[in-house]
Each structure stands twice: as C-alpha cells, then as structure tokens.
Sequence to fold (328 residues):
Amino acid sequence: MIYIKPWFYDSFKCISSKCTDNCCIGWEIDVDDETLSKYNQVKGDFGNRIAENLIESDDGSTCFRLCENERCAFLNKDNLCDIIINCGKNYLCDICREHPRFYEWFPGVTECGLGLCCEEVCRILLESEEDFSLVEYNDGEEITLQEKDEIAESDTYIFISAFRESLFDILFNKTLTFEEKLVKILSKTESFTGEKIKLRNDKNLLSLYMKTEPIDENWKEFISDLNSTEIGDTSILWEQNNETYSKLLSYILYRHLIKSVFDGCVAQRVCFAVESLRFITMCDMKNYNEKGSVNLTDRIDNIKRWSKQVEYSEENTEILIFGEGING
Fold:
C-alpha cells in the first residue's frame, strides 16, 4: 500500500489548550461502535458521567452531549479532555483521535492530509519556507487488483493525480505572477477536460455562499457584511503574497481535486478550488481595507472560517461545486 501525504504531515502535533480555537466546541462528535463498547465498560463515577453524556443524534448515531456554549461535556475548564485525563488516549473515539486528519482511499493508495479548520495546520502551511510538496512511502503490502472496476479506478487515479501534479508545477513556477498562474491553471483544465470554464463573479459567488448551511449564527451576517463591502482589487494581495496563496491553492487542490476519480467532475472541482481561494482572498481584502495589512492571525482566521463552513459539510461543499454549475 502506498501512502501519500503533505511534507509536514508527520510533524504535526495538536497544541491543545494553547490553541485559540477549540475543536471540542461547536462540533457534534459521533462515537464509533468500538469506542462505545469501551465506554460501556468504564466503571465508577466517571463511567456514570460518560453514560449520562452520550446521546442519540438526529441520524440515530451516538454522540457526545454539547453543554453551555456548545462545549463538549468532557471539555474541562482548562480546555483539556477529561476522557484522556481519566481513561487515557486509547479511549478517544475515532473522530477525536484522528481530527484534523483526513483520508481518501483508492486501490493501492491512501492519501492523507490535515484539515485547514485547525489553526496549527494553517500556521505550519503558511509559515513554512518550503513549497507545497507531497511525500510517499510504501508499507510493503502487496496490492492485487481483482475487479475491472478496481482497475479502472486505479487507472483514473493515476491519470488525475498526474494532472494535479501539473497544476502544482504551475503554482510553483517562480517566474509567474499569481494571476498568470490562475490563467494557466484554468487553461490547462480546459485542455484536459475539453470543457469551457467560466468562473462566477464575486456577487454570484457570495450569493452561493449565502445558501450554504451556516456553521454558526454569525455566518450569514458575515457574508452579508462581505457582500456590502467594497472589496477592491484582490490582485494587490496576490502580488504581495504570491507564494502564500500558491501554497493555499495547492492544498485545496490536493484535498478536493482527487475526488473527481469518483465523480469525473475535474473542471468543477478545479473551479471550486480557485473560487475558494478567491473567497478567502476577499476575506483577507476586508482585513486589508480596514487595517492596511493582513497579519498571520487574520489570514488563519479567514482560512479556518472557510474550512469549517465548507470542508466539513458535504452538503455545503456540493452546493459550491454543483449548485449552479461551473458556468453559473
């Protein structure tokens, strides 16, 4: 089995209570069956506390109860996990143990990544002096493709991942401005797919974001405020932060373009990545217009907000990819 991951994947560590955000607040966390079985065997007062704070979600799965300010019932006043403190890390459910990691599985290949909803992931990505790159290793497991569907999917993966690499090459061509990179990416996608591409304008793009299911009560107000603001020329920031936006777009392409192995929607997913980058830039421009600059904290907050709202809701992602078509 081959594993592919960003260059900093293995060095990532959760910064726990040092984080200004918290992934144990505001998220409904499903508990997998294996971990649930472990929880049912915990005795004493803490076992009773676990039982009292496991509830059934709307879809029938078991999840942790959210308490005041949507805090997980096991998040203590020091923003540390009482399950780890009382039972150890082996008692974390799959989601809590893996977050913010994500995986995509293909015949013979597993792609791994770290979600941009995490401020430490954003910080590492933005502060690194390295270009975006992928590393791979083989665990020695021999993979034999048995079915025609498996062979077809494997061939499609090779085809699309090679195309994705060609887009990375464009993004890290030091002779190009960021606008020139976007033009070349869209042109190459048109040649690759045979589809004519037209990106949404800012008004239509924000209208589509307004249709997504809000991650919090401030989302629609945030979009309305952004829509009523004179954003100005985003190329100002693209020119000043060519490498930063190149890394960010590379990471969005890495996570989302490869899903076209399953649905064939290469052009739509490239458009989604470019429009996502534009949306984040619009948020940056709002900071720039208000302060005259965009600091690292501002940029991380904007990326996190986008990621939480979009990448962690399949419905919201699909609205932004397919809602009005690529020519909407």
